[in-house]
Amino acid sequence: MATEQEITLESIVANRIATYGFLARLYRKEIDQSLLDEMCKMKYPTNTGNADVDEGYRLICTYLCGIWERTLEELAVDFTKVFLGSGMNAYSAAYPFESVHTSARRLLMQDARDEVLAVYRAAGLAKSDNWKEGEDHIALELEFMQVLCTRALDALNAGDEDKAVDLFMQQYNFLQDHLLNWTPMLVGEMEKFAKTDMYRGLGKLTIGFLKTDREFLEDILEEELAALQEGSSDDDED
Asked: SS in 3 state form for 106-151?
Protein backbone atom coordinates (compact mmCIF):
# COMPACT_ATOMS: atom_id res chain seq x y z
CA MET A 1 0.00 0.00 0.00
CA ALA A 2 1.30 3.43 -0.94
CA THR A 3 2.18 5.79 1.87
CA GLU A 4 0.83 9.33 1.93
CA GLN A 5 4.19 10.62 0.71
CA GLU A 6 4.08 8.28 -2.30
CA ILE A 7 0.66 9.46 -3.48
CA THR A 8 1.61 12.07 -6.06
CA LEU A 9 -0.35 13.77 -8.80
CA GLU A 10 1.50 11.59 -11.28
CA SER A 11 0.46 8.40 -9.47
CA ILE A 12 -3.17 9.53 -9.34
CA VAL A 13 -3.17 10.23 -13.07
CA ALA A 14 -1.54 6.84 -13.71
CA ASN A 15 -4.34 5.17 -11.76
CA ARG A 16 -6.91 7.11 -13.80
CA ILE A 17 -5.28 5.87 -17.01
CA ALA A 18 -5.54 2.28 -15.79
CA THR A 19 -9.16 2.64 -14.69
CA TYR A 20 -10.32 4.26 -17.91
CA GLY A 21 -8.60 1.48 -19.86
CA PHE A 22 -10.15 -1.22 -17.69
CA LEU A 23 -13.67 0.17 -18.07
CA ALA A 24 -13.26 0.68 -21.81
CA ARG A 25 -12.19 -2.94 -22.28
CA LEU A 26 -15.23 -4.24 -20.41
CA TYR A 27 -17.56 -2.25 -22.65
CA ARG A 28 -15.71 -2.93 -25.89
CA LYS A 29 -16.40 -6.67 -26.15
CA GLU A 30 -17.18 -9.79 -24.17
CA ILE A 31 -14.87 -10.94 -21.38
CA ASP A 32 -12.45 -13.63 -22.56
CA GLN A 33 -10.44 -16.14 -20.54
CA SER A 34 -7.37 -13.92 -20.38
CA LEU A 35 -9.29 -10.97 -18.97
CA LEU A 36 -11.24 -13.18 -16.58
CA ASP A 37 -7.99 -14.63 -15.21
CA GLU A 38 -6.58 -11.12 -14.82
CA MET A 39 -9.68 -9.88 -13.01
CA CYS A 40 -9.56 -12.80 -10.60
CA LYS A 41 -6.04 -11.77 -9.58
CA MET A 42 -6.85 -8.09 -9.13
CA LYS A 43 -7.30 -6.45 -5.74
CA TYR A 44 -10.46 -4.40 -5.42
CA PRO A 45 -10.85 -1.54 -2.93
CA THR A 46 -13.67 -1.66 -0.41
CA ASN A 47 -13.85 1.88 0.92
CA THR A 48 -13.13 4.45 -1.77
CA GLY A 49 -15.37 7.21 -0.45
CA ASN A 50 -17.87 6.78 -3.28
CA ALA A 51 -20.83 4.49 -2.61
CA ASP A 52 -21.35 3.57 -6.27
CA VAL A 53 -17.71 2.66 -6.78
CA ASP A 54 -17.74 0.52 -3.62
CA GLU A 55 -20.96 -1.21 -4.68
CA GLY A 56 -19.61 -1.78 -8.16
CA TYR A 57 -16.46 -3.43 -6.91
CA ARG A 58 -18.48 -5.47 -4.39
CA LEU A 59 -20.78 -6.83 -7.10
CA ILE A 60 -17.88 -7.67 -9.40
CA CYS A 61 -16.01 -9.44 -6.58
CA THR A 62 -19.17 -11.34 -5.65
CA TYR A 63 -19.48 -12.58 -9.20
CA LEU A 64 -15.82 -13.55 -9.48
CA CYS A 65 -16.07 -15.58 -6.28
CA GLY A 66 -18.65 -17.82 -7.95
CA ILE A 67 -17.08 -18.53 -11.34
CA TRP A 68 -17.74 -21.97 -12.83
CA GLU A 69 -17.10 -23.93 -16.02
CA ARG A 70 -19.68 -21.94 -17.99
CA THR A 71 -18.80 -18.48 -16.70
CA LEU A 72 -17.52 -17.20 -20.05
CA GLU A 73 -20.66 -18.40 -21.80
CA GLU A 74 -22.84 -16.83 -19.11
CA LEU A 75 -21.00 -13.51 -19.42
CA ALA A 76 -21.20 -13.55 -23.22
CA VAL A 77 -24.95 -14.09 -23.06
CA ASP A 78 -25.35 -11.27 -20.58
CA PHE A 79 -23.15 -8.91 -22.62
CA THR A 80 -25.36 -9.55 -25.64
CA LYS A 81 -28.56 -9.11 -23.65
CA VAL A 82 -27.41 -5.91 -21.98
CA PHE A 83 -25.75 -4.07 -24.86
CA LEU A 84 -27.12 -5.59 -28.06
CA GLY A 85 -30.61 -6.73 -27.08
CA SER A 86 -33.06 -8.38 -29.44
CA GLY A 87 -33.00 -5.58 -31.97
CA MET A 88 -36.77 -5.37 -31.81
CA ASN A 89 -36.88 -1.70 -30.85
CA ALA A 90 -34.83 1.13 -29.38
CA TYR A 91 -35.72 0.13 -25.82
CA SER A 92 -34.69 -3.53 -25.84
CA ALA A 93 -31.18 -3.00 -24.41
CA ALA A 94 -28.84 -0.56 -22.72
CA TYR A 95 -27.39 0.57 -26.03
CA PRO A 96 -23.86 1.91 -25.35
CA PHE A 97 -24.05 4.91 -27.69
CA GLU A 98 -24.42 8.52 -26.62
CA SER A 99 -26.69 9.30 -29.58
CA VAL A 100 -29.29 6.77 -28.45
CA HIS A 101 -29.57 8.40 -25.04
CA THR A 102 -29.50 12.03 -26.20
CA SER A 103 -31.71 11.95 -29.30
CA ALA A 104 -35.50 12.16 -29.12
CA ARG A 105 -36.04 8.97 -31.15
CA ARG A 106 -33.12 7.00 -29.64
CA LEU A 107 -31.33 6.73 -32.97
CA LEU A 108 -27.70 5.97 -33.79
CA MET A 109 -25.32 8.35 -35.56
CA GLN A 110 -26.98 11.55 -34.39
CA ASP A 111 -25.58 14.91 -33.21
CA ALA A 112 -23.64 13.38 -30.30
CA ARG A 113 -21.68 11.17 -32.67
CA ASP A 114 -20.77 14.14 -34.86
CA GLU A 115 -19.72 16.16 -31.82
CA VAL A 116 -17.40 13.53 -30.35
CA LEU A 117 -15.95 12.82 -33.79
CA ALA A 118 -15.03 16.49 -34.07
CA VAL A 119 -13.44 16.39 -30.60
CA TYR A 120 -11.38 13.32 -31.51
CA ARG A 121 -10.17 14.90 -34.74
CA ALA A 122 -9.26 18.14 -32.96
CA ALA A 123 -7.10 16.03 -30.65
CA GLY A 124 -5.39 14.42 -33.64
CA LEU A 125 -7.09 11.05 -33.26
CA ALA A 126 -8.75 8.81 -35.83
CA LYS A 127 -10.90 5.73 -35.38
CA SER A 128 -9.19 2.40 -35.96
CA ASP A 129 -10.22 0.55 -39.11
CA ASN A 130 -10.96 -2.45 -36.89
CA TRP A 131 -13.71 -0.53 -35.06
CA LYS A 132 -16.99 -0.74 -36.95
CA GLU A 133 -19.29 0.95 -34.43
CA GLY A 134 -20.14 4.62 -33.97
CA GLU A 135 -17.60 6.99 -32.47
CA ASP A 136 -19.94 7.80 -29.59
CA HIS A 137 -19.75 4.25 -28.20
CA ILE A 138 -18.90 4.39 -24.50
CA ALA A 139 -15.75 2.31 -25.01
CA LEU A 140 -14.32 4.92 -27.39
CA GLU A 141 -15.31 7.82 -25.15
CA LEU A 142 -13.59 6.13 -22.21
CA GLU A 143 -10.52 5.40 -24.34
CA PHE A 144 -10.42 9.06 -25.38
CA MET A 145 -10.25 10.03 -21.71
CA GLN A 146 -7.47 7.49 -21.27
CA VAL A 147 -5.52 9.13 -24.11
CA LEU A 148 -5.96 12.61 -22.60
CA CYS A 149 -4.85 11.31 -19.19
CA THR A 150 -1.78 9.71 -20.77
CA ARG A 151 -0.90 12.98 -22.47
CA ALA A 152 -1.34 14.82 -19.18
CA LEU A 153 0.96 12.38 -17.41
CA ASP A 154 3.59 12.84 -20.13
CA ALA A 155 3.32 16.61 -19.70
CA LEU A 156 3.70 16.34 -15.91
CA ASN A 157 6.74 14.10 -16.27
CA ALA A 158 8.22 16.61 -18.71
CA GLY A 159 7.62 19.48 -16.29
CA ASP A 160 5.15 21.19 -18.63
CA GLU A 161 2.53 22.28 -16.12
CA ASP A 162 0.66 24.58 -18.51
CA LYS A 163 0.14 21.78 -21.01
CA ALA A 164 -0.99 19.43 -18.25
CA VAL A 165 -3.55 21.98 -17.04
CA ASP A 166 -4.86 22.40 -20.58
CA LEU A 167 -5.25 18.64 -20.89
CA PHE A 168 -7.03 18.44 -17.53
CA MET A 169 -9.44 21.10 -18.79
CA GLN A 170 -10.06 19.06 -21.95
CA GLN A 171 -10.83 16.04 -19.77
CA TYR A 172 -13.21 18.04 -17.59
CA ASN A 173 -15.07 19.44 -20.60
CA PHE A 174 -15.42 16.01 -22.20
CA LEU A 175 -16.72 14.52 -18.96
CA GLN A 176 -19.27 17.30 -18.57
CA ASP A 177 -20.35 17.61 -22.19
CA HIS A 178 -20.40 13.94 -23.05
CA LEU A 179 -19.75 11.04 -20.66
CA LEU A 180 -21.67 12.40 -17.67
CA ASN A 181 -24.37 13.74 -19.97
CA TRP A 182 -25.64 10.25 -20.78
CA THR A 183 -23.98 7.50 -18.73
CA PRO A 184 -26.49 7.88 -15.86
CA MET A 185 -29.21 6.82 -18.30
CA LEU A 186 -27.05 4.00 -19.65
CA VAL A 187 -26.32 2.69 -16.16
CA GLY A 188 -30.00 2.80 -15.26
CA GLU A 189 -30.76 0.58 -18.24
CA MET A 190 -27.84 -1.72 -17.47
CA GLU A 191 -29.39 -2.38 -14.04
CA LYS A 192 -32.64 -3.20 -15.78
CA PHE A 193 -31.28 -5.66 -18.35
CA ALA A 194 -28.24 -7.24 -16.63
CA LYS A 195 -28.66 -10.72 -15.17
CA THR A 196 -25.17 -11.03 -13.67
CA ASP A 197 -23.50 -9.06 -10.91
CA MET A 198 -20.60 -8.48 -13.32
CA TYR A 199 -22.55 -6.07 -15.51
CA ARG A 200 -24.61 -4.65 -12.66
CA GLY A 201 -21.32 -3.92 -10.95
CA LEU A 202 -19.79 -2.46 -14.10
CA GLY A 203 -22.60 0.08 -14.33
CA LYS A 204 -22.24 1.14 -10.68
CA LEU A 205 -18.46 1.32 -10.96
CA THR A 206 -18.64 3.40 -14.13
CA ILE A 207 -20.95 6.13 -12.87
CA GLY A 208 -19.22 6.28 -9.49
CA PHE A 209 -15.77 6.57 -11.04
CA LEU A 210 -16.82 9.25 -13.53
CA LYS A 211 -18.35 11.38 -10.78
CA THR A 212 -15.28 10.91 -8.59
CA ASP A 213 -13.04 11.83 -11.50
CA ARG A 214 -15.03 15.00 -12.10
CA GLU A 215 -14.46 15.96 -8.46
CA PHE A 216 -10.73 15.31 -8.89
CA LEU A 217 -10.58 17.52 -11.97
CA GLU A 218 -12.59 20.26 -10.25
CA ASP A 219 -10.06 20.29 -7.43
CA ILE A 220 -7.14 20.45 -9.88
CA LEU A 221 -8.79 23.16 -11.98
CA GLU A 222 -10.39 25.15 -9.15
CA GLU A 223 -8.75 28.45 -10.08
CA GLU A 224 -9.28 28.02 -13.82
CA LEU A 225 -12.96 27.10 -13.41
CA ALA A 226 -13.52 30.02 -11.05
CA ALA A 227 -11.99 32.39 -13.62
CA LEU A 228 -14.24 30.99 -16.33
CA GLN A 229 -17.32 31.43 -14.16
CA GLU A 230 -16.30 34.98 -13.32
CA GLY A 231 -15.81 35.76 -16.99
CA SER A 232 -19.22 34.32 -17.80
CA SER A 233 -20.82 36.50 -15.12
CA ASP A 234 -19.13 39.61 -16.52
CA ASP A 235 -20.46 38.78 -20.00
CA ASP A 236 -23.99 38.37 -18.63
CA GLU A 237 -23.80 41.81 -16.97
CA ASP A 238 -22.69 43.40 -20.22
From this structure: CCCCCHHHHHHHHHHHHCCCCCCCCCCCCCCEHHHHHHHHHHHHHH
Is pTM beyond 0.85? Reply is: yes
Q: Which is nearest to 46 in space by CA: 61, 36, 35, 26?
A: 61
Give CATH for domain 4-232: 1.10.3480.10
Q: What is the DSSP letter of 70?
A: T
C-alpha closest to that of 172 among 118, 231, 128, 213: 213
* Straight-line distance from the first to the last Cα atom of the chain, in angstroms, rounded to the nearest whole number: 53
CA-angle at 100, arms to 96 and 104, nearest 5°: 160
Task: Write the CB contacts of 224 (distance below 8 Å, at least 6 apart in sequence).
Answer: 165, 169
pLDDT tens track for 106-134: 988 899 999 999 999 999 998 788 888 99
Taking residue 78's Cβ as centre, other Cβ atoms within 10 Å add up to 20
Write the DSSP symbol of residue 69. T
Can you say how many angstroms the Cα of residue 98 is from the centroid of all Cα atoms in its chain?
12
Contact 86, 92 (CB under 8 A): yes
Q: Mean pLDDT throughout 21-38?
A: 98
137 strand-pairing partners: 97
